[in-house]
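ARCHIVE CARD
CATEGORY: sequence design from structure
SOURCE FIELD: tokenized fold
FIELD CONTENT:
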């Protein structure tokens, strides 16, 4: 056995937690359909994950906790709020943003409104190219 110093252990935990949280958001971005019950389960699953993490480690605040919570909450946004949200949250990938538009609002908005939101995402993505 090799003892790992606490500062090193904390850094390892921080990186593992950050990667797990980023992976959760990526997983949510791969969802093809999502009901209201499914969205509630996303929140419940993440809360369970956080409770288990808090028992395993003393790292506070949990790295990227807001990153996951904000993405899950975006599933509840209306069309008008979604456009503003997209412009304010550049930390998410283009794929993650497109999924929000298609899955969250896909069956609730018309084609023109969807194209407008997808164009807003494309405008944000342009400087990256």
């Amino acid at each position: 056995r090799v003892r790992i110093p606490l500062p090193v252990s904390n850094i390892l935990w921080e990186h593992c937690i950050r990667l797990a949280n980023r992976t959760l958001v990526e997983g949510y971005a791969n969802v093809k359909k999502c009901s209201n019950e499914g969205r509630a389960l996303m929140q419940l699953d993440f809360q369970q994950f956080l409770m288990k993490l808090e028992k395993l480690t003393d790292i506070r605040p949990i790295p990227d906790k807001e990153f996951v919570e904000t993405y899950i909450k975006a599933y509840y946004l209306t069309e008008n709020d979604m456009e503003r949200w997209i412009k304010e949250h550049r930390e998410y990938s283009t794929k993650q943003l497109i999924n929000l538009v298609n899955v969250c609002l896909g069956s609730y908005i018309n084609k023109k409104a969807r194209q407008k939101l997808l164009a807003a995402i494309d405008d944000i993505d342009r400087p990256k190219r």
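CARD ANNOTATION: The chain has two domains: 1-76, 78-128. The chain is about 70% helix and 0% strand.
SHELF: design records, drawer C
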